Amino acid sequence: MLFSKRLKVVLDVNILISGLISKKEGRANSPSYMILKQLENKLFTLNINPKIIEEYDRKLNEKVREDMILASDCSNFLNLVRKEGVIDRMRIMPIIIVPNDPSDNYYFQSGNCLGSDYLVTGNAKHFNPIKDDLIELGKKLKIVTPSEFINIKKY
C-alpha cells in the first residue's frame, strides 16, 4: 500500500509486547503484530524520544527474561526502532500530565511525539482525561487502539 504522506505514530510499549508475543505464537492476524509489520515495511514514521527507547528496551528485555518473547525478535525490533525511529530531544517536564498513569508522561515530553498523528496503545482509557488538553494545545494527536489504527484508511 502506497500513500503520499506517511503517518507519524507513537507506539506504546504494550503494542510492541503484544505484537512480539503474537509473532512468537504465530498469530499473524493480531492487530499489534500487523502494526509491527507496517513499521517494518515503512508504512508509517515512528516518533520516539530517549525515554521511550529506554522503556522499550527495559520492558522488552523483561519479557525476554520471562520467555514471553524471543530474544532475537526483541533485538531485531530494537535495532529497527533505532534505525527507523525519528528521535527528538526531551523537555524536562511533560506538557501534558497523564493522571491515570503518570509513567506515560514521557510520551508528552518531546515535540515530535506531541506532533504525531496517532498514539497507539492498548490502554486508551489511561489517556481519556487528556484529550481536551490536546485539543486546547492545538495538537492533532489521536489516541487509538491497535484495531482502530489498523482500520485507518491511509490512501
Please give the alpha-carbon distance between the first and last residues. 8 Å
Q: What is the number of strand segments?
A: 5
* Shape label: globular
Q: Report the total helices.
A: 8
Residue windows where pLDDT falls under 50 for at least 5 positions: none
H-E string = EHHEHHEHEHHEH
The major pleated sheet works out as: 5 strands, parallel
CATH topology: Rossmann fold
**Strand portion:** 5-15%
Radius of gyration: 15 Å
| Tally of structural domains | 1
Mean pLDDT reading = 87
Helical fraction: 40-55%
- Architecture in CATH? 3-Layer(aba) Sandwich
* CATH class identity: Alpha Beta
Structural class: alpha/beta
Strand order of the largest sheet: 3-2-1-4-5
Brief write-up:
With 155 residues, the chain is of the alpha/beta class. The chain contains eight helices and five strands. The protein has a single domain, classed as Rossmann fold (3-Layer(aba) Sandwich), CATH 3.40.50.
Describe the structure.
This protein is of the alpha/beta class and 155 residues long. The chain has helices at 13-25, 31-40, 50-65, 71-84, 111-114, 124-127, 131-136, 146-150; strands at residues 7-11, 44-48, 86-87, 118-120, 142-144. It has one domain: 3-Layer(aba) Sandwich (Rossmann fold). Helices cover 46% and strands 12% of the residues. The N and C termini lie close together (8 Å). The mean pLDDT is 87.
